[in-house]
From TrEMBL:
It comes from Calyptomena viridis (Lesser green broadbill). It comes from the Eukaryota. Coiled coil: none annotated. This is MITD1 protein. The gene is Mitd1. Residues 3-56 form the MIT domain. GO terms for cellular component: midbody.
Length: 229
């Protein structure tokens, strides 16, 4: 499987499809790392480690892609935005967003945005086991609803074998999402880039692909993914 992933990565590289090739390189590296852990022969381990180092060199180019979401644009639901980065090797996710909280406006509870993001992770194809959330406390009377909502999401995820670790910070400002396959996505508005629907029974209320968006930018980076070999 690792060899097939590497072959595909080279083909995509030659075709200048660099984003897809990086995904395949990373998948191949992770598969080879699994082989290293299972191999008892030290000579074979050494050869595998050399090959992995070479592949890391090839896949270590700096990558940056920017997506601009225009005002009132549609078609930018979470699955459409994140699916190509959620490969099968993704098992851990970090979400940093200061506004995962309850908002006292009809149909605009930002906790639902985070819940829908989690639903996307549950559906796969990735096999997420841990989600780390760093956010800030809601101010005033909304704090109890925020904590209650997050605890309910935490319990629901546990039913799917996923652990949600929640931390709070009063100084968090950055908004970013990281996957343990090396991809990092920064959205100017965090997960809250959707406009308020016109009503509870209007198109786009349930399906975020049909929900108009606020203007924002999405920056996608790939960082060298290092593990002990």
């Amino acid at each position: 499987a690792g060899a097939e992933a590497m072959k595909r990565a080279v083909e995509l590289d030659v075709a200048s499809r660099f984003q897809e090739s990086l995904v395949c390189y990373q998948e191949g590296i992770d598969l080879l790392l699994q082989v290293v852990k299972a191999t008892k022969d030290e000579a074979k381990k050494h050869r595998y480690r050399q090959k992995i180092s070479e592949l890391m060199f090839f896949s270590d180019g700096k990558y940056h892609k920017q997506i601009r979401i225009e005002e009132n644009a549609t078609g930018f639901g979470y699955e459409k935005l994140f699916h190509e980065y959620l490969t099968e090797i993704v098992s851990e996710v970090w979400v940093e967003d200061p506004y995962i909280r309850h908002v006292h406006q009809a149909s605009r509870c930002l906790l639902y945005n985070f819940l829908r993001f989690c639903e996307m992770l549950v559906k796969g194809p990735c096999k997420v086991k841990i989600i780390h959330l760093l956010t800030s406390y809601d101010e005033g009377s909304g704090r109890s609803q925020q904590l209650s909502g997050l605890e309910e999401i935490q319990q629901s995820l546990r039913n799917y074998g996923i652990t949600l670790n929640i931390e709070f910070s009063s100084s968090i400002h950055d908004r970013e999402i990281r996957f343990n396959n090396g991809w990092m996505i920064k959205i100017g508005r965090g997960l809250d880039y959707f406009k308020k629907p016109q009503g509870r029974f209007s198109i786009g209320y349930c399906d975020f692909d049909l929900r108009p968006c606020h203007e924002t930018t999405v920056d996608v980076f790939h960082t060298k993914h290092t593990k002990k070999m």
